[in-house]
Amino acid sequence: MGNPSYFFVQSTSHYLEISTNPAPVLTLSVYATSHEDRVKLDSSIQFVSDINNKNLSVSIELIRNGTFLTSHVVQMDNPHTSQKENFLVITDNMTWSDTPDTGLNLYQIVATVLDEEPLLHPLFAGTRSINATVFP
To answer: Per-residue pLDDT for 38 more than 70?
Structure first.
């Protein structure tokens, strides 16, 4: 049995605009040495929007090698949303355990605005990160 491996990516340098078109906000390559490897993934995304987008809903999906793994919805009007200088800020976290294919695997976090009406103001993904620990 080998030692665990650790992979990560993070971005704090720029904001990425999110719209009704699905867009990857994080991409991470993870190497699995065997079909018995297990991967524990942890991600975090800070969403920032104008106060006028208060009822906004965003879908967060986890994808491996183009295959959907899981998703959930973030609501900008939930109790964990804070207001700072006329902006809404919420941090979303996701944890997932996976059994990937042997070799290189590409994980993506994809964000999509679910509201059909045009946004009054843009929604951005700010500070974001994903890390993976591979357990042989």
So the answer is: yes
83: CB partners within 8 A, 6+ apart: 51, 89
Q: Is 61 exposed, middle or buried, given 0-12, 13-18 or 19+ CB atoms closer than 10 A?
A: middle
> What is the biggest distance separating any 2 CA atoms in the chain, rounded to whole angstroms?
54
pTM: 0.89
89, pLDDT greater than 90: no
pLDDT: is 55 or 67 the higher one? 67
53 φ, ψ to 5°? -100, 30
Helix (H), strand (E), coil (C) string for the chain: CCCCEEEEEEECCCCEEECCCCEEEEEEEEEECCCCCEEEEEEEEEEEEEHHHCCCEEEEEEEECCEEEEEEEEECCCCCCEEECCEEEEEEEEEEEECCCCEEEEEEEEEEECCCCCCCCCEEEEEEEEEEEEEC
